[in-house]
Structures are given as structure tokens and as C-alpha cells.
Amino acid sequence: MPQGSPRGTYLEVSESLRAKIRDGKITEALPSQSALVSEYGVSRSTIERALATLKADGVIESVQGAGWFVTGTGDRRPLVERVTDLLRGEGVKVGDRFPTEKELCERFGASRTAVRSAIAQMEGRGLIGKGAGRGREVLTLPTGRETQTA
């Protein structure tokens, strides 16, 4: 992103994101703040100001533990519930490989910190654990729709 006035950079970022939402390039979840920092080549505080501007205008909303969403869209459940739903998928069996942190970050548009927290909660409930090699595997399948956190 070209650097004009430092005071106006966050407005340029917010207008770019607004255009992507308007044009349908972003339809639900926004990319993580880290991804936006990389994409626009600006600081985290600039991204935070841009997001705050869009939030104040009612264009986006923040969901604790889930990220930023276009207002009125997206899955608002905690990340751990959405990740646990992977184990409820058709054909998932005990012993199957569980996705890597990187795969989960990309799939859910979440930060690595948020994904690690969800994984830790799932490990604490005995759903997943260390598998062969460096990966994780499914230890047991969830029953019902439990939403308890560890």
C-alpha cells in the first residue's frame, strides 16, 4: 500500500477493505490481522484503526475468539466449537490425522494463537492428541453438541 500521510493510511486500508466487501471479494470472515498486516504492508495499529473505522460504520463486527466478520454473516460460535465440528464430519474415524495448525488457520481465518487455544482445549477434553510423527490424531469422537471449554 503506498504510504501517503501516516494519518491517512488507516483510512486507505479501511476503504480498500470496504471496497472488497462491496465487490463480494470478502463475504463473511475477514483475513486475520496478521494477514492484513502482510497484505497491506502496514503496522498492526494501522490495521486496528482501519478495522475500528469499519466497525464504527457498521460494516464489520468483532466476534471474541472468532475474528472479524462482515456484519450479519459468518459463524459466531467459539473457534473450539467450529474446530470440534471437524470431528463430527462424515467419515472421520478414531486414529485419523487431525489438520495442522497452519491448515486450521487457513480454513477458519484465525490466528495461530486462537488455533493453538482451540487445540489445547480439544486435547484437554481428550478428543485429539499427539499422533505418529509430529502430527495430531483423533483420539475419540465428540458426543452431542458439548460446548464446555477446558
Automatic annotation (TrEMBL):
SMART domains attached to this UniProt entry: HTH_GNTR
Supply the alphabetized keyword list.
DNA-binding, Transcription, Transcription regulation
**Domain of life of the native organism:** Bacteria
> Pfam families, per this entry?
GntR
Q: Read off the Gene3D superfamilies from this record.
A: Winged helix-like DNA-binding domain superfamily/Winged helix DNA-binding domain (1.10.10.10)
Residue ranges of the HTH gntR-type domain?
A: 7-73, 73-141
Q: Which SUPFAM superfamilies match?
A: Winged helix' DNA-binding domain
Enumerate the InterPro entries for this protein: Bact_HTH_transcr_reg, Tscrpt_reg_HTH_GntR, WH-like_DNA-bd_sf, WH_DNA-bd_sf
Question: Record's PANTHER family?
Answer: GNTR-FAMILY TRANSCRIPTIONAL REGULATOR, MANNOSYL-D-GLYCERATE TRANSPORT/METABOLISM SYSTEM REPRESSOR MNGR-RELATED
This one is known as: HTH gntR-type domain-containing protein
Q: Which organism is it from?
A: Streptomyces venetus
Taxonomy of origin reads:
Bacteria, Bacillati, Actinomycetota, Actinomycetes, Kitasatosporales
